[in-house]
């Protein structure tokens, strides 16, 4: 699905009257949304007490029979994350290995800090994932853990699950190992800073090799038939004058290369678990042929080329969200990605183990500070790789994880969508009757209603009008706004402009 990124920058204390009004509307609406979705507030006292008691003793030792935690503090790991991040799950180091590469990927060892069956464990199962909103986040674990002791912060010795993945010259894995280690990140890089260093030639070897490996993995994804929707992120923030703004940004190349290392690790995790006959996968069924045919029909209607013999993934990868007809086709393409699920197994593998968008089996394992299932996947993979038994607490949790994750993902999606809808309505609440330029990206009800994407601000809303011109630049008038209901509605003003 297209990503919607929500980000908050602190507002100045002396904001203009209009900024204060919007700020009040948004914050009141966010409180109502949290109540509606039962978003957890403060951590219970017993959770905080358990976390406070852990750092004094340090992380738990390796389970009986498992290899001791290795000392990898000499490896110059770095993290690459959005600016201001503190819950750092992953640190990376790459080096040449003959004609190929060695990828070292350190993942925060959350299980070293969380006692199975304890208060922190129970609360994490209730929260499931970290939730994000314009006024902050609702973390999966208490910040003293997720942004402190367990985080891979620079200069801090931290327990990690250390993946070592050897790749050949084409970027194909030839060997995979994962075990417990202590790591120390050397630097916390931002996406913007890392991209700037790569562009101006000042990047160190790890970043240079991240680019090389990332490109090889992107090529491998294309060869597998993987599908990534090239859609920009929606960004909510407060500007220097205290005004709420809503815009969009394209992801930087280094973000995509960094994501490829995470995907590579998730694919290796899935392979380990499938070979061992135990684990939990993130799956997505192949696109329904009827949805592919609808996409093909939409492309014809929009005048988007569909080369002879090309599959839907090839066509979608070539789209540019800045082109009106392409933006509409991207909206239609989201129907190809329906049916994502988590599937646990202990014995026979799942009948359908693939993640169709990745075009391979895949598992979530690289974000345990922010997502519940990753902690358990990591434990299974460490045991399998080391030839030891999967810990009983991890194995026992497998059957319930798909249900927990599905419910958590539903709440996270509703929360993110509600946050964006709220900010859109608040920003436009005093602009009823104004006209805006936009693109019709979806048509429903035989062309009588649909969805319009405005140029500025970056708002999507319902639009009504006879024979809506799909994928066409239009002029629309804001007809109705409700901040409490988080809705905006437009009407088509005139005809499409080509």
From TrEMBL:
Database matches in InterPro entries: NA-bd_OB-fold, RNase_II/R, RNase_II_C_S1, RNR_Ribonuclease
An example Gene Ontology biological process: mRNA catabolic process
Name of the featured protein: RNB domain-containing ribonuclease
Pfam families in alphabetical order: RNase_II_C_S1, RNB
Residue ranges of domain RNB in the record: 69-387
Transmembrane segments: none
Natural source organism: Cellulomonas hominis
Annotated segments matching region Disordered: 1-20
UniProt GO molecular function: RNA binding; RNA nuclease activity
SUPFAM superfamilies given in the database record: Nucleic acid-binding proteins
């Amino acid at each position: 699905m297209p990503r919607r990124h929500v980000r908050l920058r602190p507002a100045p204390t002396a904001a203009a009257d209009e900024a204060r009004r919007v700020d009040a509307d948004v914050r009141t609406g966010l409180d109502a949304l949290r109540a509606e979705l039962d978003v957890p507030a403060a951590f219970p006292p017993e959770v905080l007490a358990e976390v406070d008691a852990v750092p004094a003793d340090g992380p738990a030792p390796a389970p009986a029979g498992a290899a001791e935690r290795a000392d990898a503090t000499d490896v110059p790991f770095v993290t690459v994350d959005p600016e201001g991040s503190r819950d750092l799950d992953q640190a990376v180091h790459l080096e040449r290995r003959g004609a190929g590469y060695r990828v070292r990927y350190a993942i925060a060892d959350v299980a070293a800090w969380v006692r199975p069956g304890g208060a922190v464990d129970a609360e994490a199962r209730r929260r499931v994932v970290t939730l994000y909103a314009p006024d902050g986040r609702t973390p999966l674990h208490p910040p003293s853990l997720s942004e402190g002791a367990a985080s891979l912060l620079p200069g801090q010795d931290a327990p990690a699950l250390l993946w070592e993945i050897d790749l050949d010259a084409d970027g194909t894995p030839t060997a995979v190992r994962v075990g417990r280690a202590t790591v120390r990140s050397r630097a916390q890089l931002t996406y913007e800073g890392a991209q700037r260093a790569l562009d101006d030639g000042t990047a160190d070897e790890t970043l240079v090799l991240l680019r090389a490996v990332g490109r090889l993995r992107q090529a491998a994804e294309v060869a597998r038939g993987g599908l990534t929707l090239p859609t920009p992120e929606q960004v909510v923030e407060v500007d220097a004058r205290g005004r709420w703004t809503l815009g969009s940004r394209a992801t930087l190349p280094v973000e995509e290369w960094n994501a490829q290392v995470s995907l590579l690790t998730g694919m290796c995790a899935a392979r380990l678990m499938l070979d061992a006959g135990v684990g939990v996968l993130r799956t997505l069924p192949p696109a329904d042929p009827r949805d592919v045919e609808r996409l093909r029909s939409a492309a014809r209607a929009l005048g988007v080329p569909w080369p002879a013999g090309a599959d839907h993934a090839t066509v979608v990868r070539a789209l540019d969200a800045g082109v009106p007809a392409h933006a509409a086709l991207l909206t239609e393409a989201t129907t190809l990605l329906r049916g994502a699920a988590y599937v646990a197994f202990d014995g026979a593998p799942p009948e359908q183990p693939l993640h169709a968008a990745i075009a391979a089996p895949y598992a979530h394992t690289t974000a345990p500070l922010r997502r519940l299932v990753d902690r358990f996947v990591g434990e299974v993979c460490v045991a399998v790789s080391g030839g030891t038994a999967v810990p009983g607490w991890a194995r026992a949790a497998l059957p319930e994880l798909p249900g927990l994750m599905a419910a958590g993902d539903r709440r996270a999606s509703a929360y993110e969508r509600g946050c964006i809808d709220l900010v859109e309505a608040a920003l436009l609440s005093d602009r009823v009757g104004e006209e805006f330029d936009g693109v019709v990206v979806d048509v429903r009800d035989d062309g009588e209603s649909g969805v319009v994407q405005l140029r500025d601000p970056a708002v999507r809303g319902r639009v009504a009008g006879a024979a809506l011109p799909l994928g066409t630049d239009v002029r629309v008038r804001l007809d109705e706004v409700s901040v409490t209901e988080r809705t905006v509605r437009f009407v088509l003003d005139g005809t499409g402009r080509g």
